[in-house]
Known about the structure:
heterotrimer, B: mainly alpha, 2 domains, two-stranded antiparallel sheet, 72% helix, C: alpha/beta, six-stranded mixed beta sheet, four-stranded antiparallel beta sheet, 10 helices, 23% strand, globular
Amino acid sequence: xxxxxxxxxxxxxxxxxxxxxxxxxxxxxxxxxxxxxxxxxxxxxxxxxxxxxxxxxxxxxxxxxxxxxxxxxxxxxxxxxxxxxxxxxxxxxxxxxxxxxxxxxxxxxxxxxxxxxxxxxxxxxxxxxxxxxxxxxxxxxxxxxxxxxxxxxxxxxxxxxxxxxxxxxxxxxxxxxxxxxxxxxxxxxxxxxxxxxxxxxxxxxxxxxxxxxxxxxxxxxxxxxxxxxxxxxxxxxxxxxxxxxxxxxxxxxxxxxxxxxxxxxxxxxxxxxxxxxxxxxxxxxxxxxxxxx
Amino acid sequence: xxxxxxxxxxxxxxxxxxxxxxxxxxxxxxxxxxxxxxxxxxxxxxxxxxxxxxxxxxxxxxxxxxxxxxxxxxxxxxxxxxxxxxxxxxxxxxxxxxxxxxxxxxxxxxxxxxxxxxxxxxxxxxxxxxxxxxxxxxxxxxxxxxxxxxxxxxxxxxxxxxxxxxxxxxxxxxxxxxxxxxxxxxxxxxxxxxxxxxxxxxxxxxxxxxxxxxxxxxxxxxxxxxxxxxxxxxxxxxxxxxxxxxxxxxxxxxxxxxxxxxxxxxxxxxxxxxxxxxxxxxxxxxxxxxxxxxxxxxxxxxxxxxxxxxxxxxxxxxxxxxxxxxxxxxxxxxxxxxxxxx
Amino acid sequence: xxxxxxxxxxxxxxxxxxxxxxxxxxxxxxxxxxxxxxxxxxxxxxxxxxxxxxxxxxxxxxxxxxxxxxxxxxxxxxxxxxxxxxxxxxxxxxxxxxxxxxxxxxxxxxxxxxxxxxxxxxxxxxxxxxxxxxxxxxxxxxxxxxxxxxxxxxxxxxxxxxxxxxxxxxxxxxxxxxxxxxxxxxxxxxxxxxxxxxxxxxxxxxxxxxxxxxxxxxxxxxxxxxxxxxxxxxxxxxxxxxxxxxxxxxxxxxxxxx
Lengths: 293, 342, 258
């Protein structure tokens, strides 16, 4: 029973990790019709930003402030990335998007490899080492923070998308661009904002999760892969579907690792196997819907 | 085709072959020979990948997986069974073709993007398995002591391929075979069907072309060639590590294809040679030991710049050059509007 | 207009229904097309004409109902399978393979309809050479028919809209289909071109080809159709001779409102 709860918490935390990353990815796909293969590297960069901030912290800022700083830095990063990489090729084919973002991923991960060594960096925080009791299971406070944060982010994002002007504009752009132009929505600006938001989400996720999972330069592509699998499983373009699919993957991997002997080493195979199986049975993903031709 | 230039194709084959045979006599060091082998390997690899990427237009990320797994199939199955060189290649090709079938069909079901993601997940999973199944694959400790190929040759008897030069000559027929297969697939009616699927799947269906069949054909053939190449790699390096499934290969392949020229045979060969020889040249000349990560950053930048500003690559430039050369021999055909338009 | 004896229909649908996210695009649609007829579908925008076309040709799977062509149930077949059965179509948005030359565009379609297997496609056997020559001959003939011979080797992407429309048209013909479905053949082209299209259709029809058209240009509809079927909001509201449809009150209301 204790092990089950422990696995559940770990699985939910891992799911939260994937879910936060997937949210950013889905936003970009919905608004800009672009699959960002460098998204996992956004997360990696965010992790290193936190690392640098916490390692060289002359003002001795507390951890929550560092989280906010990381998020803001990453928002800026998103804007720069959009300008440098995406801006000129937004109207071109998905193949161009794929190669360009893949190339960006290579540049980012190897830049990190050159700047920091290839070993994983640990980022200790007081929350990480504070142990809390959840229904009798000891667990790190950091995990609780992550779980609470992901719920807040999810609800906050829903609110943002449905109640604020910018959020509604983003939804409009994702549904029908031509009408947006007529109505006076500056699509380019919305795309920049979406990238900033997406990168900020990645940064926020990294700031919360890096202490739990550590950062390494090459982690990006692996994270991107998981997020992409979640997007496909959830049904392309379904934000909520991707979100829940991400949690599913996190739980699946954790339980697989916990209960199958040597499962930890093969958890990617588990995710991939599930993806293949579900695609065979439900090609539109778990929650996807076929629209038109 | 203009009769004056119709002979250029077979001539270029003969010239190319002669050139390839002479090369190792011009550069005689062992190091130079190993670079030649590397170039040959990447030519084959790039051609196999381009059938899917350049012609049918489906970009997949599983090339290193097929390559590396092909190597491991030889290392773990071919070696204990004591298969000869050719059987090893065939076995790896066959197994990889099967994998491609299993991975491709569900991945293609929704769209080309799902396909890319599915192949990415497949490649990631393969890398993890190879790294972790230490009992089977020895994981990061690598499979070692793979025997070099031996042949029964007339007059010489038992001949063991040992030096880089030997491997180079062994590789030449494989390169030629790959080029033949590549041309067969891309110049024929299959090539036309590929282009149709790439240009417009909806119209392709209305023309009697079943897109999935052609996407899978390109994927499976590419996988088979990559698998056979991996088998060669295993018998060349005699040591196979999980790094053979690394994503770095994809980067190099993408650069070769997009800088060399998507869908252009000449461009791909030029690109493959450039991106194997050039890094080695720089290393040799400047005696600078460039860290692989710096090299990859440069590669990434090149790829990004090329895809943004010159997606046709070298091949496009070559075609334009030939177009200029041919112009005095061709009648200019004007294009104007004959039918009505509102 | 020729009088066709009431043989069994070459194409008919029974109860085709299709809903998209709450909107009923097609509601229990039954249509028939008899061999040798020219039938035109008319209706205001959103009446379901394109959806019906796509359901018949296999691009959309209807929620319920069936389509029969030459006696076979083609409802669940893929578009490429339906084409091989002898039902060709064009698209409203005029599609061609832009990177292929005009000749290659046509030869592709012609060769898809030639019987062979994968082996022969790989190696240039004498049989393949013969097939290729036959396909080439047919292609050049049709290109000649529409007067585009000098553009034979030009990449189709370089052609004008009208030229591409002609290419699309003869691509539908080269497979020698029994029935051709044309989606707005008179749209966005000048009167000279419209005359040409009309003449091609009438000539081919005299030679025995069946046509199902979608068309907005009422002059064309009246001039060449044997029968007209009117749709509105996914339902068939009228069917009959062109003159009858012109007088039909419901059709007028559908177009101009009550």
